[in-house]
Specification:
Blueprint: H1 5-16, H2 21-35, H3 45-56, H4 61-72, E1 80-87, E2 93-100, H5 103-116, E3 120-121, E4 131-140, H6 144-153, E5 160-164, E6 167-172, H7 177-186, E7 194-201, H8 209-223, E8 228-233
Antiparallel strand pairs: 1-2, 1-3, 2-8, 4-6, 4-7, 5-6
Helix pairs in contact: 2-3, 2-4
Length: 239
Amino acid sequence: MGRKWNNIKEKKASKDANTSRVYAKFGVEIYVAAKKGEPDPESNRALKVVLERAKTYNVPKAIIDRALEKAKGSADEIYDELRYEGFGPNGAMIIVDALTNNVNRTASAVRAAFNKNGGNMGVSGSVAYMFDATAVFGVEGKTSDEVLELLMEADVDVRDILEEDESVIVYAEPDQYQAVQDAFNAAGVTEFTIAELSMIAQNYVTLPEDAQAQFEKLVDALEDLEDVQQVYHNVELED
């Protein structure tokens, strides 16, 4: 699928290493997920998915506990889940997912990030049709054949299994997220380099060097926004 998950993860980890931004965003996401049901991951699938992803980003337990305690308490902050679609340099496609308690603030900030960095906002549906919602898992210490075998034994269907650097990446339908995780857990695999529900582009593009520099600046500007949780795109970034 050409996603280069490990390289992207390392880039994001390096970028976020000196800030608390990523932890603050997870705090909001955990709170919102916990409020969708019980603040217990065993009975709240949305929360379980977020907590598993938080582990892959090494979110401190204190951040997680604080968000869960807030959800259990009397706090009742209202957050809207929003999706914006737009284009970057050379027609690159971008999806921006946000959680916000102020829709006007977020819409204005996202639009400004696009406009100031060589992009432009699109209408709903202008980009998303070129992406597929996907469950993505990454594991180390196993070959692709071993992963295929354990998933087949658990009768779990997946879209693709690829080896990337030292990891094996599994792509599956979103509704197979829990089944894939359970299959790994049953085989003794409980640690993941990737564990998330994502939007995967159907086709990736490579940009000229100058356009890529501008594109990365746009993505950075979007990811720096307080209310933005995820930015997906169809650009094959160079290492």
